[in-house]
Amino acid sequence: MQLDFFPSRSLTLYLAKMFFVRILAMLTVLVIVLMALDLLSRTGDILAAPGNGQGELLTYIGLRAPQLIARFLPYSVLLATLITLVTLNQNSEVVAMKAAGLSAHQVLAPLLLTAALVSAANFAFNERVVTRATATLKAWENNDYGPVPEDSGIRTNVYLTDGADILTATTLTGTGDDTLMEDVTWYSRDPQGMLSEQLRAERATYAAPGWKLENVERFDISAANTSTSDTVVVGKGLTTAQIELESVDPEGQNFFELWRSIEAYEAVGRRTTELRAKWWHKISGPLSAFLMPLLGAVAAFGLARSGQLFVRAIIGMALGFAYFVVDNAALAMGSFGGYPPFLAAWAPFFLFLLIGETVLIRTEE
């Protein structure tokens, strides 16, 4: 195999431009279709909030679209690979390139370079846009699609423990002594571990020590009666530092923020398996787009008139979608400790890289 992967500048630009245009086309189609389907299920909930209208629907689209773009960009690269290579094969352009002395790797090199640039762009897009949109959208959803919180530091569905007792909150804003929780529930347990009382409050603020619940409704489980109080202090062993550790959302933090959260967890002896797997996947996930030209390369070679072109395209699509299935399964295994975090994030990538290279070399090189 020749070591010069880009022997012709004109051919490289021609293939890269063709491939990039098809990636954009497929991504646009996928995002529009999926966004329309998503709106069908979400529009009723959004418009049910008082004062919401068309502007809020556009806001939802603006927050949801970045998630769809980041998630389905690798799928778009796979479909664009198959369309590009099938077109080149049908027009005998692959035959012409191989007759000119180009190897299979040289034919694919412009596509791999384009896919690598798309992977880098996807990583940057995830870091700068998707994480912020995800954090804001989650806060909005948990606020029943009320006014979108402008504070990007808002956390939702907070679950905290103080020994056997539990404190939950729908939203948490601020840091340190300025921390504020809303829609709060406190579950108190007796020495035997049985639930003894439940307190519901509109909000909770840091009381140093403990957390002051306001407008409290108390339910005594043993007596089966309900009472109300203006304020109650609970969770005196729950500090603001523990609050920040308990409220880590991997999808709402960028690469460096998540790493700092992992270090903070490890400093206090907390389990970090799930966070580490998702931290590694912030790199391996966008890089999956680089694999797609290699996995779909089987559609590029072989005579179009042999009747096997459609079968080759199906094989390429099957390889690509098999990667996504294995990747999701490995990440799930890594999240609950079945696989080491690094292996969970990277094993599918390297496995299918070897599979793609093996298929390409054995069939064409």
UniProtKB/TrEMBL annotation:
<dbReference type="GO" id="GO:0015920">
    <property type="term" value="P:lipopolysaccharide transport"/>
</dbReference>
<keyword id="KW-1133">Transmembrane helix</keyword>
<dbReference type="InterPro" id="IPR030923">
    <property type="entry name" value="LptG"/>
</dbReference>
<feature type="transmembrane region" description="Helical">
    <location>
        <begin position="309"/>
        <end position="326"/>
    </location>
</feature>
<feature type="transmembrane region" description="Helical">
    <location>
        <begin position="68"/>
        <end position="87"/>
    </location>
</feature>
<keyword id="KW-0812">Transmembrane</keyword>
<dbReference type="GO" id="GO:0043190">
    <property type="term" value="C:ATP-binding cassette (ABC) transporter complex"/>
</dbReference>
<dbReference type="InterPro" id="IPR005495">
    <property type="entry name" value="LptG/LptF_permease"/>
</dbReference>
<dbReference type="GO" id="GO:0055085">
    <property type="term" value="P:transmembrane transport"/>
</dbReference>
<keyword id="KW-0472">Membrane</keyword>
<feature type="transmembrane region" description="Helical">
    <location>
        <begin position="107"/>
        <end position="125"/>
    </location>
</feature>
<feature type="transmembrane region" description="Helical">
    <location>
        <begin position="20"/>
        <end position="40"/>
    </location>
</feature>
<protein>
    <submittedName>
        <fullName>LPS export ABC transporter permease LptG</fullName>
    </submittedName>
</protein>
<feature type="transmembrane region" description="Helical">
    <location>
        <begin position="338"/>
        <end position="361"/>
    </location>
</feature>
<dbReference type="Pfam" id="PF03739">
    <property type="entry name" value="LptF_LptG"/>
</dbReference>
<feature type="transmembrane region" description="Helical">
    <location>
        <begin position="283"/>
        <end position="303"/>
    </location>
</feature>
<keyword id="KW-1003">Cell membrane</keyword>
